[in-house]
Amino acid sequence: MSRTSRGPSGWDDAGVEGPPPAAGMRLAWPSVPAGLRQAVEHRLGGRVVEAVTQPGGFSPGAAARLKTATGKRAFVKAVGPVPNPESPDIHRAEARIAASLPEGTPAPRLLGFFDRDGWVVLMFEDIEGHLPAQPWVADELALVLRAVAELAVALTPAPIDAPTVADRFGEEFQGWRRLAEAGRRGDDNLAGLDPWARRHLVDLAALETGWDAAAEGASLVHADLRADNLLLTGDRVVEVHIGRLVGRRAGTRHYLVADPGGDIEVEQFRPGAGEHHVERLGRPASPALALPMRSRSAHSA
Predict the structure, then answer these.
(1) What count of Cα atoms within 13 Å lies in the side-chain half-sphere of residue 77?
(2) In order of start, what are the domains of the chain with their CATH numbers?
(3) How far is CA 278 from CA 219, 271, 272, 275, in A?
(4) Which of 81, 83, 109, 198 keeps 20 to 30 A from 273, CA to CA?
(5) What's the 3-state SS for 25-56?
(6) pLDDT (tens digit, 9 = 90+) per residue, 53-91?
(7) pTM reported for the whole predicted model
(8) How far is CA 286 from CA 170, 261, 265, 299, in A?
(9) Per residue in 1-55, pLDDT tens?
């Protein structure tokens, strides 16, 4: 039976299409093991009297803004090895990077972290702010782009040794090539693919072969720069959940273009030669269609 592809929309690892925004199931703070909660209280210097779970994100762990009886506040993330065994390592990597960021980096300051019984707990300063409006509005988008550029300067060269973009996403960013091959073999009828992408699938597959070379660089860049990983505080942008990659400075803007909630026009970005290829093919229905696509299982027809 042939299978039907849906293109670069929201998918989970089982091939089930999900909502565009991050929509993970957060663990409520009272559900975190008692020993971990007590350890956090000890490090914060007081009993937690208020815990507000933060929505968004894909992590199955806890993400909560805490207030102690002494008035101290912190943003705390905690995750264990179930249901995702790789989640603790992701938190460990984030802690390592956050601890190495130069002073003045627009990111929450790491207050501390610890490992216990397979769980990893990170404690950050609590930042008052709000998420950017979705769809994007011009003044907030301009503020975010300026902050991205400033972050690239601050983190070049990368302050720590981190895997390259190609090392991290080399196996995943082959979606167009795999779709083209599946269509050629007759394994996927491509009926669910965006019409623009279907017409230009061969070109997109060819362009995708050069994404890793285009992403080479010495900067530490945010690998998950979505609207729900940004906080606006007046005229300042704070970038949370700092990524784990080394790549060229334009790379973070590519992630912004791919934000499904963003509805950003291609001409607002100047990433370089790749844009000229996109315009040669004609304007896609979504800017995200012109980017390297993560490989996912296709839907059954």
Answers:
(1) 23
(2) 29-124 (3.30.200.20), 134-300 (3.90.1200)
(3) 25, 11, 11, 5
(4) 198
(5) CCCCHHHCCHHHHHHHHHHHCCCEEEEEECCC
(6) 987 666 789 999 999 999 999 999 999 998 889 999 989
(7) 0.71
(8) 23, 11, 8, 20
(9) 334 444 433 333 333 333 234 455 789 999 999 999 999 999 999 999 999 998 7
